Each structure stands twice: as C-alpha cells, then as structure tokens.
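Researcher: We're teaching a course module on how sequence relates to structure. For the next exercise, students receive a sequence and then see the predicted structure as tokens, so they can try to spot secondary structure elements on their own. Here is the exercise chain.
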Amino acid sequence: MLIAQCVSVTFGNFLMDAFGRKPVFNISCCITALCSIGYLVLPNIQLVLIFRFFDCYALNSLVSAGFLMMVEGLPIKYSVYGTNTTSHMIGVGFSFCAIVSYFFRSWRWYVGFAMTLPAVGTALFSLLFMDESPRWLLQKQKFNEFEIVMKRLFKQNNKKLPTFLAKEIEKMKAESILEDDSIAFLPLIYKKLSKVKFWKLFGTTKSIMWMSALALSWVATVVIYTGMQFGKELFGGVQIHVYFIINGIAEIPGAFLQLYMAKYWGRKSANIVSYFLCTLSLLLCPFIPRNGYWIALVYIEALITRIFITSAFTNIYMWNAEIMPTNLRGVGMGIGSLCGRTIGIFLPFVKHLSKIWSPLPAFIFAWIAFLAAITSFVLPETRNVISPDDIEEFQAFGTNEYNILKQKRLDVLKRTAAYQDETSK
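Model: And here is the predicted structure for the students to work with:
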C-alpha cells in the first residue's frame, strides 16, 4: 500500500499540475471503482494484491486531486471548512468499514458493501458533476475553459457573470498566446510535462527550509497516523474492532479541533499545538496498565492520540497546499507526502521494536512528532492570505514584495466581492 502511495504522490501529483486536477480525479475514481468490482470476482490472492496496488494508487491520487480542487475553488474564509469535511468523511469511512467487517466476516461481502458501492457512486458523481479548478485553468491560460466554469458557477448561485469579469477574461484571451493542442499526441504530452519544473521549489535557501519542514511534518503525520493501526503494539490489550471504530470516531473531533485552531489561531499554531499534544499523549501511553479497569483508560488514550494526529493530518494537507504555488501545487504536496510515505514503508519493522522494549515504538513516534512541531516554526502563516500562483510569488511569499505582486489580483477580488454584495441586496 505505501509503495503504491509513493508512486501516486510522485507520478499522480505530477500529472495534476501538467494536465489538471479534474482528469486525474476522474480517472482515479474509475480505477478505484473497477478495482473494487474486481475484488468480488478475482480467484486468487496474487491478483487481489495487484489490484490492491492500483487501488491504493488511485485512492491517494483521488484524495490529493479532490483536496486541491477544494482549496483552489473555495473562498479563503471557507477553505478550512472544506478541508474539514474531508476528515469527517474519512472518519465515517473508518467506522463504516469496522462495523461492516464485524458483521460480514467474509472478505468478499465486506468488499462488496464497504468498498464497491462507495467507489462506484463516487466515480459516477465525479464524471457527471465535477468541474476543473478555475484557478488552475487561469494560471495555465486556458481562458475559454475558465470562462465556461465561471459561468456555470455563477449560474448555480442564480447570478450572472459580472460584466467587468467577462471583459477581463476577453482581455486576457487577447493578450495570451494560446497553446497549440493540435500537434501530435506524444509531443504534446512531453510539452505539458516539461512545464512542471518542480526543482524551482528549491531555488532559494528559504524555500529549501520550507520544503524540509513540510517534509518532516508529512513524515510525522504519515508515520503516526498509519502507525496507530498497530493497536496491539501501541495500545496493548485492545479489541481490534472496537479499536478501529474508535479510530474512525476520533476523526470527527480531530477535524473540529483543527477547524477551530486553524480558523482562529492560524495554520502554524494549529500544526505546532497538534504535534506537541500528540507528543505528550504518546509519551504517557506506555505507563498505563493493560489489565482490569485500566483498559478503559487505554481506549481513551487511543482516542485522544488519534484526535491530535487527525488534527495535524488535516492541517498539513491544507497548510502545504496554501504555501505552494498553483502551477506546482500538486507536485509540491507530492514531494512532502513522498517523504512521509517512503519512511512509512518501514513501519512494519518499527512495531517489532516492542519485542526489545514495549514502550519503544511509542517513544519513537513521540520524538518524530516533537521534531515536526519544532520545525513548523520556520514556515509562513497562511491564514487569510491569498496563496501564490507561480514560482516568483512563492519565493516572495511572506514579504512586502509578495503583497505588491498580489495587489492587482486583490483589486479584482474586491470588485467581485462588491458586485456580489450589490446583487445580493
């Protein structure tokens, strides 16, 4: 699974920046649906593992593409609510899978109810109703598609496209040099891929520090979030179905915790506080007895730890996306996520360290969370700040130069807001 996720964040996120969020999202939904249907009829475990690889690849690409479309499509003040919705649905999915697996011990019935129906439903919805990210279209100078999407968005809100915005789109069309999509298929793909120059994310000392800090946050998030599946090693004595239901339930308060902190304290504070609290929770974990009535406290400790790491997980997705420039946002998130998934491959070996000393896995996770909290101090705050659109803005992010670069766009946004206020009266 983690190897498939590594491939996904490397290749899939690269394709998001080259060809758009919507194609990757739709294709990933279809792959997931086909794999889920395949599980019901595959004759042996070897084929199941092959399908599982593609399923994990598609699921990771689906989540990343959908997340980017939410961040880029929602207004700044509402983006935190969109990202929290994702965590709530993850929590529902965790609990749903645990409940289904308890009542349907046959894995084919489990796959049928817990995986196939949601996957097919998501694929149909994405193909029929999803639009491309307007911000990605604008940055890639695809003004015709941008105009169509914007008209549809205004129509869905019972409004017409503002005259000044339509004129601005026509002006951009006239000034732009349209890309020739009529050339041969393979050269066209190469041309699009060659425009994703991810190495420019490491062009300055400041950006290198940012990318390193984000990578460490991803490592902490993936390692602890995935490592908590080893319930026996971290929280010995727990019943597996109850443990996974608790993990699912914890997603919801964890997302609400992140929502409050990110909205009122800022993304940086939310990240630091979540990792510090997760560190304390993991350090206390080994000292709770595993017998008698103490087992109830073990479940509570598992719930608290899951809440804190869910808060960190939700926050790093949003914070990483808001720091990255639009034209490299997918690959920028993919680099950090790749670091986390790569280290996560070794998690099955970490759990065996409990045979040497039972508290050792928890202490390792706590140390990683502490390092992630400390390095988060170097990252910029993004609350109520418009994200960068290109590498020039990314390198100037957090400075007065960045404010100057964004002034023109801010004027357009203010005019749009004034128009919406006027038409809503």
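Model: If you want an answer key for the exercise: Confidence is low (pLDDT under 50) at residues 180-186, 419-425. DSSP finds 19 helices and no strands in the chain.
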